[in-house]
């Protein structure tokens, strides 16, 4: 098919030419005496993306799932209790990973239309006076449902209970896109991957860890050799890695961080909010609704749209792919068939997104949803024009 393939899944995301060019280079010696000139400032600048001064960043060949595993195996011991909510595909998988490592997971089962249950967490933490719970796991942005969670609220729940548990956050589809404040929220481990907000190819797990988590790593008994924080940290100090790092991806990550910091993390978050709000206006104009039942928690990186009765969400995704060369996300787990997902994170702007909304309108109509063609596009256009004017005035 002629023209660019339209990629609107919530990861991997669109890769800017700047990053693609940065990666396109010959192999080199990762033990060269000047390798640290690339890696040391990169590890330092990554802290700005997580908004941490006290934390330490590790970059592993891997993906977000590997980042989860690094966090768990470095800080906990077999039989330890962790607290987690299951309210989507990714929170569910993180729980399964913990169980596979022999942890005792206290699971709060919630509706897949809600964020993490801050109030329920607070009650459980208050009642846990023996401090059996060693870590609280929260998914900042459930990519399956398009629902965010209140990480600051979870921090408050821990503080109000005077509870010493570690706070681990899955930020795979939020970090480098949404407002994320590792130090301010007292996050002890923040996990992400390269192929979402960082606009990179898949292949890196990026994990930021607090001094408290590094302290816990000293007595943890689960243990990992490859992901071991101590072993990696010793090597990182001099800009090296205790294995062969993905050098080309590190150059890509350098360019990614350059782009993020040039735009400014607050501006990155504001852009994602502006774009997502346009999508929400479109969904509204179509007479459809989003999966999340609290508008305050609607995600700025992915919109999970409920399809009308009688329409198969899977068919919409397949048809958009085959007929219009556009990739949308499908419904995961119990949401299969009931939703489709529009990813709008990373390297996206207004006009790109308007194209996606126009494609969705065609695919929906072709699949039997009688929505007015152009209605969502117009609603998003109006939002973008008004929001653009506000941004221009703020800049003056
Ligand atoms: C994509 C994603 C993951 C899984 O990451 P991989 O890079 O696919 O291993 C985990 N959590 C969330 C919230 C995600 O969006």
Automatic annotation (TrEMBL):
Gene Ontology biological-process entries: glycine biosynthetic process, by transamination of glyoxylate
The keyword ATP-binding belongs to this UniProt entry's keyword annotation: no
Molecular functions (GO terms): alanine-glyoxylate transaminase activity; L-serine-pyruvate transaminase activity
UniProtKB keywords: Aminotransferase, Pyridoxal phosphate, Transferase
Residues where N6-(pyridoxal phosphate)lysine is found: 196
UniProt similarity note: Belongs to the class-V pyridoxal-phosphate-dependent aminotransferase family.
Protein name, UniProt field: Serine-glyoxylate aminotransferase apoenzyme
Organism field: Limimonas halophila
Record lineage: Bacteria, Pseudomonadati, Pseudomonadota, Alphaproteobacteria, Rhodospirillales
